[in-house]
Amino acid sequence: MYRTIALALAASLAATPLAAEIRIAHVYGKTGPLEAYAKQSHDGLMLGLEYATDGTMEIDGEPIVVIEKDTQLKPDIGKALLAEAYGDDDAHIAVGPVSSGVALAMLPVAQEYERLLIVEPAVADSITGENWNRYIFRTGRNSSQDAISNAVALGGEGVTVATLAQDYAFGRDGVAAFKEALEATGATVAHEEYVPTDTTDFTAAAERIFQAMGDIEGEKKLFIIWAGGGNPMGKINAMDPSRFGIEIATGGNILAALTAHKELPGMEGATYYYYEIPQNPVNEWLVKTHFERHGTPPDFFTAGGMSAGMAIVEAIRKAGGAEDTEALITAMEGMEWETPKGTMRFRPEDHQALQTMYHFRTEVQEDKDYGVPVLVREIGIEDMNIPVRN
Q1: Is the per-residue pLDDT at 9 higher than 80?
Q2: pLDDT at 15 over 60
Q3: Cα(first)–Cα(last) distance of the chain, in Å?
Q4: Where are the alpha helices (DSSP H) in the chain?
Q5: 308 phi and psi, to 5 degrees?
Q6: Residue 19 — very low, low, confident or very high, per pLDDT cuts 50/70/90?
Q7: What pLDDT, in 10s, does the model give residues 57-90?
Q8: How far apart are CA 374 and CA 334, in angstroms?
């Protein structure tokens, strides 16, 4: 008798449909050299989902479930984990990764499974360029946005630039876009250096730059594109490039990396985010909440992760749910939504998020242990002609 009741109960439970839920996979490099970026990205994603759902973590009554997977910054692992997220976990949408190299390996998986991948924060142009497919959307900025905003900040007639970058997609795409953007300003690139991602000794690269730039007349800058450790700015600055008339320049970075900027007051560039720059209700909430929970300000990729989370909620609401990928794509193409940086817009042609960038000048402030990027001017969506590269 008891066995009959148990079997009947089991059958009843099996016949009862499970509560609908929205499954989001965060596939990102939790461990490895870019671990700090990854933590910021995940914290921001969760804050974005929280803010956009008024703290309920539900969309139209359906709970949000976030599944975390660690790529370890390895392309083959990232590719396998994304397939696992779509196939085994039945994730409706995936977010990530940190590394551009890993992102490029993951793009075909989204196309194979016909599920969305929101790229955040990997930067390489080729992600929404030659390697793009229609299931890819990117909330993070791309190399062209970095490059064009920095060209606006640094370029001009008579300016000569050398570049130093890491020898992979992030660095090479960044330099290519920067060179193209500089042409419009009248500046020229005289020398390029590419070094391995784990480089810590920049002596040889710096000497080649000094030799190439030493006899050139006029204003000279060394523009550094870098992610992770190694501190190329501080180490090259210690070699006194000013004896060759060369000024160091770079874009924005996470707070930990800005400690090297303290040695370079007055340095200019363009940045994606610094918590004191944007003035809008979303960023005010982010800054206040992050200080309350972590005792620190939100960082570069916290804002990016939050932008991705808010985009997901907006898209699912517009599409009437997370199940229909085609409805999500239709909802997201041309979609505008609010972020800590203000309004972003997905460009229909390549699904790249168009967004404001910020021309900054570095200041040394008594209460900060890093060089503070103080706003010179906003470089708005309409101020940058971002090429469509696919």
Answers
A1: no
A2: no
A3: 67
A4: 2-15, 35-52, 75-87, 100-113, 143-154, 169-183, 203-213, 232-237, 281-294, 300-319, 325-332
A5: -65, -45
A6: low
A7: 999 999 999 999 999 999 999 999 999 999 999 9
A8: 31
All residues at 6 or more sequence positions from 3 whose CB lies less than 8 Å from its CB, including other chains: none
Whole-number Å distance between alpha carbons of 361 and 369: 16
Q: Are 103 and 127 in contact (CB under 8 A)?
A: yes
Average the pLDDT over 152-176 and give the result: 92
Task: Write down the CATH superfamily of domain 145-271+357-383.
Answer: Response regulator (3.40.50.2300)
If phi > 0 it is left, if psi is from -120 to 50 it is alpha, else beta; for residue 220 that is beta
Q: Are 267 and 36 in contact (CB under 8 A)?
A: no
User: For residues 308 and 318, what is the distance between their CA atoms, to the nearest angstrom?
Assistant: 15
So where are the chain's domains?
A: 22-141+279-354, 145-271+357-383
pTM, two decimals, is 0.88
171 and 205 Cβ atoms separated by less than 8 Å:
no
Query: What contacts 24+ positions apart, CB below 8 Å, involve 240-244?
Result: 241/206, 241/209, 241/210, 244/210, 244/213, 244/214, 244/220
| Cα dist from 66 to 137, 210, 306, whole Å | 18, 49, 14
Q: Output the six-digit token pair for 320.
A: 């009437």
C-alpha separations of 74 from 106, 138, 172, 359 in Å: 11, 20, 19, 33
Question: How many residues can be counted in the chain?
Answer: 390
**Domain range 22-141+279-354, its CATH number among 3.40.50.2300, 3.30.450.20, 3.40.50.300, 3.40.50.10420:** 3.40.50.2300
pLDDT-based confidence at residue 231 (cuts at 50, 70, 90): confident
Instruction: Judge if 22-141+279-354 and 145-271+357-383 fold alike in CATH terms.
Output: yes
Cα torsion angle, 166, 172, 174, 178, sign: positive
